[in-house]
Write a structure and sequence with these properties.
single chain; 8% strand; two-stranded antiparallel ribbon; elongated; mainly alpha
Length: 382
């Protein structure tokens, strides 16, 4: 008769809930990314493929975590588990190794996806490209080193799940601390890598702050890593099935947040589908003022990811008409004096550089102008 290792195992149930919710959110986020690509009408890029590839790895990680609870007794004290279901200990240790490999692979794919996104956005800067490629090299070296470390944690490998077999194993605490510290260092490098370039762009301060916050979301992962290091220092190897729970949950949160953060900058086309609110100031509820400022955004740059574009400006005159005039006389546009005219600001943009999602020099011309619903009216004397 099979033993139920989930009933009464609150910590194990927490793993199932957290990982299931995290995996579901990742599915939704990747689906939104695919929708955004379709809305933009652009081709898939390397960073898209890497993010998409990370999703099934994350799902495999989630399944492995759940198997570790259901069949391995993850969350139950090791002494109790050895008495209640001795074979479950072997299952848990085998699952632990598989989950480690899946977690490492997903984490590296996510980091490479972010770095390739950086190249598409800011790759026209030669020094930045070199820095990106150098960081990619560090990420790849991290993957190779940690993968080898996982595989050589015990000699022979089978001793990881068969403690009675002759051989030796390295400390699980050392393994967890090493990976967490190295990963946190890489995360900080990736987070701050684009910041100097962002703040050199010709954008408003508000735009620079908002873009920096989007890419600075990676600090969430750093916080998760700090917590992981804290719980690792309290890890009890003799009671690994119980002590692994907190570390396992935090490892899952790390890759869940990582994929969400990697996809967030690409969702701008979906956000742009929502109408912009009308704002204004003036006299009365119907007559908003005598002059108007019409803000437009445009451009044929279908590859732009988060709306980072250089702008050029031009001005066109237009007449601000009262609502009563518009409703009562369709021919009122004739004979409007120059004194009655306001000013409209037209903003345009174009794809710059080599087809990348980057920011180049000031464009030579406006390729296309698209008027949006965003209107701002300012009162002025007649």
């Amino acid at each position: 008769m099979a033993i139920n290792l989930v009933a009464g195992n609150q910590l194990g149930q927490n793993i199932i809930i957290v990982d299931s919710v995290g995996a579901a959110i990742c599915i939704v986020v990747v689906a939104l990314r695919l929708w955004a690509i379709s809305l933009r009408g652009r081709n898939y890029r390397i960073h898209d493929y890497l993010a998409i590839a990370a999703l099934p790895i994350i799902l495999g990680f989630t399944i492995g975590q759940i198997i570790g609870v259901v069949h391995g007794g993850d969350g139950i004290h090791t002494a109790t588990l050895a008495t209640k279901a001795p074979t479950a200990v072997v299952t848990l240790l085998k699952t632990y190794l598989a989950v480690l490999i899946l977690w490492l692979t997903a984490s590296v794919l996510i980091k490479l996806s972010i770095l390739f996104l950086y190249l598409d956005l800011f790759g026209e800067n030669g020094r930045f490209r070199i820095a990106c490629y150098g960081t990619m090299g560090l990420v790849f070296a991290y993957f190779v080193a940690v993968f080898c470390y996982f595989m050589l944690l015990c000699h022979p490998l089978s001793k990881q799940w068969n403690q009675a077999e002759p051989g030796h194993c390295s400390s699980l605490v050392t393994e967890q601390l090493t990976t967490a510290v190295l990963l946190m260092a890489l995360d900080l490098v990736i987070i701050f890598l684009p910041m100097p370039t962002i703040w050199d762009l010709k954008m408003s301060l508000k735009k620079k702050i908002s873009v920096s916050l989007v890419f600075g979301l990676g600090l969430i992962i750093t916080i998760v890593n700090i917590l992981r290091i804290y719980y690792t220092t309290a890890f009890d190897a003799a009671d690994f099935s119980y002590s692994l729970v907190s570390v396992g949950i935090l490892a899952g949160l790390e890759i869940f947040f990582g994929l969400i953060i990697a996809c967030a900058p690409t969702l701008q086309p979906i956000i742009a589908k929502f109408p912009q609110p009308l704002t204004g100031s003036g006299k009365g509820s119907k007559t908003l003022g005598r002059t108007g400022s019409l803000t437009t955004i445009s451009g044929r740059n279908q590859s732009d990811t988060i709306g980072l574009r250089d702008r050029r400006h031009d001005t066109k005159n237009f007449s601000r008409l009262d609502d009563e005039e518009l409703n009562g006389n369709p021919d009122v546009l004739e004979g409007v004096s120059a004194a009655e005219r306001g000013r409209v600001t037209v903003r345009g943009s174009r794809d710059v550089g080599n087809g990348n999602e980057g920011i180049g020099s000031e464009p030579d011309e406006v390729d296309q102008i698209r008027v949006t619903r965003e209107l701002q009216f300012f009162a002025s004397p007649r």
